[in-house]
Amino acid sequence: TDGHLDQMEGAAHLAFGVLERHPHNDEALAILERHYRATANAAGLTEILGRRLDGVSHPADKAALQDALGSVRARGQDNERAAELFRQAVENPASSLSAARNWARVSEVLGHTEELCMARTAEASASRVKAHQAAATLEAADLWRDALGDASRAIAAYRQLLKIDPENSAAASALFQALEQEEEWSTLVELLRQEAARDPSRRRALLKRSARISLEELADSEQASHDLRAVLKEQPEDAELWADLATACRAAGDWAGLLQADQELLTLGPNKEDAVALRLEMGRVLHQRLRRPEQAVEQLNLALTLSPHHKEALRRLVEIHTRQEAWPQAAAAIQALL
Prior knowledge:
The protein is mainly α. The chain contains 19 helices and no strands. The protein has helices spanning 2-21, 26-38, 42-55, 59-75, 79-91, 97-110, 113-126, 130-147, 151-164, 169-181, 185-198, 203-216, 221-232, 239-252, 255-267, 272-289, 293-306, 311-323, 327-337. α3 packs antiparallel against α4. The radius of gyration is 37 Å and the shape is rod-shaped. The mean pLDDT is 90.
């Protein structure tokens, strides 16, 4: 009302008088702040808030004034100065969610993507609402990855998101992709196995991926074997997995495991060429690694039933029979070679 405005004008006039003698008098500055807000005097409000900010030392008060002054600057389209004030408020330990949101808003207007990421991260830290924390962190993570191409900061943001929302499978997938791009194989395997333990519906796929990375990128055949065996308990008909397990066992020198994998591959009905190769490998392992010549001969003979003139199988039979001094059998194998 006009009467109220008249009273406010009178109070403002008195406040000016006080400030001439005491430039940082809190009560006088507060009166003028209310007056300028009521009269929509942006220039006056900017000046008063700036003076209040200059004279304040308490962190919470300082952050609140920086946020308030930044809002006035933003309304006046002075977004660069507003962004700086909001950033300063956010860096204050006593900052509020309001300052972080305001910083994000003006950063988006200015097209300052890196500052927008930092503002969204600050929002997540200041918020007490889990859904808001997750949404702000996800936006920051996606921007770090897609707009800025900063994989390391994207990884940190996705990991933080999974702490907030462990059930977020999309965030987990994005994190795995980023780790793969950065070739952070050990971390990726660790997280794949954690996610497999958490999410039974994706367990097999995650462990398969973990095993392949362990085998192909880390040369960790023991870890690969462990994960592959876990999957094969649920998926014993998967020939590709048995082949991967055979590769892992071969690399680890796990000869008993290799024999088991080869035998399982044989039960899955390979073509003739693959079956011969499996029998030959079993023969080599039994003879050279496990010192079981009789069982080696059995496997080599099974290979020859599929390919009667297979030279490697025959040469190995000659070698075994000669060492065993089984001369008739050695002679027969030599004859077949001719």
